[in-house]
Design brief:
Two copies of one chain form a homodimer. The first copy, chain A, is of the alpha/beta class. Chain A has one domain: TIM Barrel (Alpha-Beta Barrel), CATH 3.20.20. The first copy, chain A, contains 16 helices and nine strands. The radius of gyration of chain A is 19 Å and the shape is globular. Chain A starts with 7 loop residues before the first helix and ends with a helix. The interface between A and B is large, with 46 and 46 residues.
Chain lengths: 353, 353
Amino acid sequence: MDSRARQPNLRADGGPLLAALRGQGSLPAPIWLMRQAGRYLPEYRALRKEAGSFLDLCLNPALAAEATLQPIRRFHLDAAIIFSDILLIPRALGQAVTVDDATGPRLQPFGEAFPTMTPPAEMDGDSLDPVYRALKLVKAKLPDGVGLIGFAGAPWTLACYMIEGGGSKDYAKARAFAYGNPDAFERLIGRLTTAVADHSIAQVAAGANVVQIFDSWAGVLPAPALRRWSVEPIRAIARRVKAAAGGVPVIVFPRGAGVLYRDYLDTADALSLDTAIPVDWAAAELQGKVAVQGNLDPAALVAGGETMRAEARRILGALGRGRFVFNLGHGVLPETPPEHVAELVELVRAWRP
Amino acid sequence: MDSRARQPNLRADGGPLLAALRGQGSLPAPIWLMRQAGRYLPEYRALRKEAGSFLDLCLNPALAAEATLQPIRRFHLDAAIIFSDILLIPRALGQAVTVDDATGPRLQPFGEAFPTMTPPAEMDGDSLDPVYRALKLVKAKLPDGVGLIGFAGAPWTLACYMIEGGGSKDYAKARAFAYGNPDAFERLIGRLTTAVADHSIAQVAAGANVVQIFDSWAGVLPAPALRRWSVEPIRAIARRVKAAAGGVPVIVFPRGAGVLYRDYLDTADALSLDTAIPVDWAAAELQGKVAVQGNLDPAALVAGGETMRAEARRILGALGRGRFVFNLGHGVLPETPPEHVAELVELVRAWRP
């Protein structure tokens, strides 16, 4: 039986993604993919050539809107996620940022950008304007029933990049700074909490009907630090966003949090599961309380074939009957053949228990 | 009450580490630290200058033995771990390896080293001889009651380095190879399982009385792949090692496995906990069945002071009354002040519930 027949109003009110996030499990499960706009698509690579650097593309509203829409046109996914970058917030706070394709992001040294070790209370709002303009352009062109997701990095993850000055394998410098300078770090997290909430609310005002908060480096924190610097700030952000933006659904992705995923249950409408979260555990411990999203291994999408199909069916088998959004456990990899994505979408749409 | 009084034989029979691993919780908890021999020690830096490259040091028995003993002399830890590297196994199988201080390990491209995508069945045993010679030298000088730990990388982690050709942030290439070439990957894991067991048994023959298996990249695998390529090979290795080496205790470190730590319970005498594992969960889910080891954040050891003391006491409070070995959740960081290690050892030795 197609359960959509039972929920016509919810479906009409924002499509399958919104319905799943608002507590209606129904089939087929909505599907979108983290980093669905990106280098694996030839049309994206052409757009990048036109734009210049990665940040040039993020900051060009017309081209960012086009990048956002490309995977929707090609795969008819259930949600678009605005083409943008989490480091636009550090940039809006005054820290110079560059992103190189080969070496990743580089940020101006923290003490040089912020001699008091604390960024200013206010962001340079104009610097984020291209994101809101891109959202408006996407909204105008998005087919009915396709969700539009705004996003931001969580305060802890932003602080990691800001203090390290770029990517790192373990963000040990950021953790040592936090442990050694708890007052300065608390101020930094406070400023970022405000900035992330402001940026999220502005994205909703510009047309986003879902917000996802990426705490990509939650997994490097021990439990007490994770509760203080990841869970609590995210809870505060979600409350402010929901209060200001008519209860817009918030998805939280505390990557690597493992057992501590449970600590995020009351911060979010949905938890996005990383690859390491066992789906049976998520069904038992998380899905009764929130929607869950995930968590196909992006490397299985690269491999394709029977491995990909078996993995997708395994995830649907455990989670597909409840409140569920099909996604990956991490972003699409550049070497992914686009036809594997098309096959995955077809499989998810056809799946029945 | 000092519980040591009740277990005089176990204490005499290999010291506090062996007693804890064999199922006797007692106070003070034994303590050693992953990467306790390393760049944070000035005497190690002097030794490195003398030796040349990192691998030159690993392969010089007299100097590797000296590096192993340095932290024992300075901190009177309860165990020495042989100064060596997990990549000596890929090297012994015929894959050229270099380790650069700045850029990390580099391995000869996989298809060039192994055109059949499978290493030979036999290792070049001579190439591992310096490890066994170093163990014998350490054993002769080690104070009574101090454990001597041999170690190896787990097959999955070794396969990650071998296929990627070095470190990576997510080992996506290794996962995609595994998913796309399951037969070749199964053969690779099989060869590595044999090699790791052989090398572990030889280390015990040379004087090690504990073996630790490092699965540093377990955390990037979804549950079914983790069970197949991490849990099962480790179980096979531990069985062979224990059968061949008089039941020598095996510690398993499936870093990043999160909820799936439970899957390793019957593979090991002890599980080494990464920083993200909550200690209350480990006390409830793991410690009743095996000894646990861990899991102070190495960045808290860098920071020192009240943060370090509070974190150490929190871990002891949750785990210190059971079968427990105090350690870090990952290796000592190069910027760690040695005096923080001395203070930590003193704190652990003085701690009572």
